[in-house]
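WARN no homologs supplied; continuing
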Amino acid sequence: MADNYDRNRDNDRPDNGNNSPRGERGYRGDRNNDRGGYRGGSSNRNSDESRAGERREDRGGARGSQSGRGGYGGERRYEKRDDRDSRGGRSGAPSRSHSNRAGAGRDEKRDSLHPQRSGFREERINTRLNEPDLPGDLDVKDLDPLVLQDLRVLSKDNADGVAKHMIMAATWLADDPQLALRHARAAKDRAGRISVVRETCGIAAYHAGEWKEALSELRAARRMSGGPGLLAVMADCERGLGRPEKAIDLARTEDLTELDEDSKIELAIVVAGARHDLGQHDSAVIELQRVTPDLKATGLTASRLSYAYADALVLAGRADEARQWFQHAADIDEDGFLDAKERLEQLDEGTN
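OK structure emitted
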């Protein structure tokens, strides 16, 4: 369900219309202007069918194997119990006398989450009533088959509801990120223990500019499923929260060996943006050089890398070197996502 990123100084970036503290200078229109630029839904799957399911950065749009799967629904493990006495009780355990029953020692926090607690049914009904409307012609088979497989642990009716909300979250992600987030939250309320659902909610929150919520949901998805997850999105959320140092630390402390090449490039672009935030423009150039910009490379990721590298060179006072990289970005940007040609014109005007 998604992919994009970048830049530094706030006064150089247009407003992206998505509550983002920074726009992306290299992108045209609100669709591609949202920070890291993930334009779809879930980091482990490829689903055209969900309309906004472009490339899962490897997200909610992203897909592939980034965030790993199988963390949910794993086998519950029990320890061997050998501490019971001859009467079937546990040795050393307090006797279950009258004072130990009828609620003595209850865990009120745990009980408040129990389906049998007072008011639980009413709260659930109210939550369902407040969910965003679903079109009657939605077909759950439009969702990625791997996602549908994850939802099989739910009852059929609930699985269908979750699937439809996830489809709508992907559908509205680019045009109405706030509505997409409402659908993603509805899916989470119904299936909060499934990693791809939490990941979808995180991506939707990211596009809506809810950086804290996005970070929380993506962390939860990673705990459930394992794998490297959407590190680039998480790092960009740290930037959105005004914590560029944490974005840099995230790239340093995490194991990046499981990331595919495109994901490594996206993370490098975000880290370079964090360096710009700190005024460390030369370091930003070095961050991007680590993923080896190539004037012979093609494709969207290559065009974004060339653009980010050219931009970093300009900020580092190396405008002459930047020209060939802006030109390369413009040449391979077939869909017109970037403003590389305009940047070239600006550089030419500056030298005249």
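The longest helix spans residues 156-172.
OK
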